[in-house]
Amino acid sequence: MAIDYSNKAQIFELNGLEHLIRLLGSPDPDVKKNSVECIYLLAQDFQSRSAVCEHNAIPPLLELLKSDYPVIQQLSLKVLGSISCEADCRLVLKENQAMDHLLKILEAKELNDLHVEALLIVANCLEDADTVQLLQQSGGLKKILTFAESSPLADIQRNAAKAIAKSAHNAENRKFFHEQEAEKTLLNLLATDNEGVKITSLQAISIMCTNAASKDVFGIHGIPQIIYFLNKDSAELREAAAFTLANLTTGNASNASKVAEADGITALIHLLSDKRDGVVTNACTVLINMAAQESLRLIIQAQGVMNALVEPLQSSSNLVLSKAALTVAAVGCDADARVEFRNAGGLPLLVKLLHSEYDEIRRNACWAITVCANEELTAAELYGLGAYDILQEINLSASRRNNFSELALNKMLDNNLSLKYNQKGFLSYNNLISDGFFDHGRIKPDAKLPSLEELSKRELNQSRAVILINIRSPEFATPSPLPAEEKTEPNIRQSPSSQSRSASREKGGRCQSPVEDKQEQSSGRSSSVSRSRIKEKSSSKGKGKVKKEEEKMKEEEDVPQFKAQPDPASETLQWFPPFDQELADYFTEASRTILPLPHLGEQVVALAKFVAERMGGAIEKDQLHEFSWELHISELKFELKSNVIPIGKIKKGIFYHRALLYKAIADRIGIACTLERGDYGRAWNEVKLLSDSLRPGTRASPESYIVDLMHEPGRLMKHGTAEAESYQQI
What we know:
Layout: H1 5-13, H2 16-22, H3 29-42, H4 46-54, H5 58-63, H6 70-83, H7 87-95, H8 98-107, H9 115-125, H10 129-137, H11 140-150, H12 154-167, H13 171-179, H14 182-189, H15 195-208, H16 212-229, H17 235-249, H18 253-261, H19 264-271, H20 277-291, H21 294-302, H22 305-308, H23 318-331, H24 335-343, H25 346-353, H26 359-372, H27 376-384, H28 387-396, H29 405-414, H30 417-424, E1 426-427, E2 437-439, H31 452-457, E3 466-469, H32 496-508, H33 514-522, H34 527-539, H35 543-558, H36 568-571, H37 581-593, H38 600-614, H39 629-640, E4 644-646, H40 655-669, E5 675-677, E6 683-684, E7 686-689, H41 691-694, E8 703-707, E9 716-718, H42 722-728
Parallel strand pairs: 3-4
Antiparallel strand pairs: 1-5, 2-3, 5-6, 7-8, 8-9
Helix pairs in contact: 3-6, 6-9, 8-9, 9-12, 11-12, 12-15, 14-15, 15-17, 16-17, 16-18, 17-20, 19-20, 20-23, 23-26, 25-26, 26-29, 28-29, 33-37, 38-40
């Protein structure tokens, strides 16, 4: 009757358990056997397990271990094994010296049929620190290790490994097991045919890894064997193996390298699509640990990890989502990896995680976005997906913001300076304006900033002109901009010699100097392209030329007399912003005339005069209303048939035109300055100068100055003074 669940409940309600416990003292062995068997069946239920201890059943159960009948002894051990899962029952077992009885059974070879159950009870009791200490003092740990090494029975091996795992939670025990070479024993157990033994041994290895010396031993001798289990059909075995590798590689660069050497990366990436959540999370942990080393990270990236991470980012498990986002942050530190992840459609999934109600998922998603937004194209796409608005909302919430949400927002802005200037009205010293930057002016808080391509394709309108900075011609344009980390940051104070050195480095490095940019871009085509065209022209003679002319005439005859439709192929060509030849000339001239000046202060003043001259010269304050810059801008828009105007075209500019041009040129020639927007068309630049920049021979701390570009070009106004505020405001 006690086998059935409903009967168990009825027996418990009728106090049947109390009567059965009383019968354990019966002189009739059959009554004892049937009673203890019935108690064992009832003890499978949580409520009955607690009641067994409450009715003081442990002393008679321990007494039955001395029975002459093996079946009674075995059933008594099974009952004790069930109730030892409860903390209160383990306390009662310790009070009744249960360990002494169990150790006597383990020491008796003739009772080897009872060793499996006895070891299980010992393993359960090792949950308590007092029992662990008692077993260590009595030599019980050594006996457990002996059983694991010598017994051929899988159940004994499994329970012995379980006991090692439980006792290894104690630091002293881990040290003891290491001295007894328990690592060798556990690795030998991995070679058994029993899956349960392998899983339990892996769990013991995971706990033993807390000991640094043991971790090294397992790393040297066990990693290939553990990686082999990652490809097994058993999901539980795969999870245990991945969990063990996660512990082995945490804080251990050598073990992480050994995983790569044993071809573990392919198996780990394959596990990212596993159906078992625990397998995926543990595989992510190993990949995160390995990605801390650049050489391993590059290998992981080369094997398609960014594509593989897209699937776990769509999981229904919060733990998987959190770990997958963290893996993106750890592995996506390189430009190629970010491009691969973007092309695989991973960015929308990250943005979606920002809406999560779970703090850990939001935090890891913000971190991943911080890493992915480290280049212009990805930052722009994240903005288009709404990440900027969501991050703003998170940062305004006291309960939802985290350590990375503000960082992610700032990273998006720092790698999309057009957006940053639009939203914040400020570019710092380290925000270097590059080709493709545009100033759209302010937009409504709930509106989105269109892309430059969208703005260029809009019909001419009465809106404020969009001012463009671009000297990259289509022939020299690259598919994607340089990663943000490769951009140069200007120093606040830079000596002429250091500026010259930086210019020479640019000539030999990846980025060309403004002079070289101008020489290449102003020519319209590279010399190699020109040579190839000349060669083509010289070779097109004789029949080829005649044939071409005949074909041309035939095509003209065949063309119908109506407007031809545009070529679909031409519509799919990549769009490039217009090239600004005047701006390229400005960069070249500034590099030639301003960069060689001996002091930073002189460079700042000279550049201010240079900009003012190109934008209409000095204008008296009371004459500003007569400066017809608006008509000039309107004429340019009509001439270009576009709302986007390259800044070099502007010959009559006011505050915000001049400040933008000043910042653009200053960034190219290494003068550190800010760009800040005010109200009613005001904008200004701030520079930091030491006293010796203005008066050689003196020393002082850096001070901030506003640069006058309108009224007295080159005048430096100390920040915060009345004249500076007058320049910044109407």
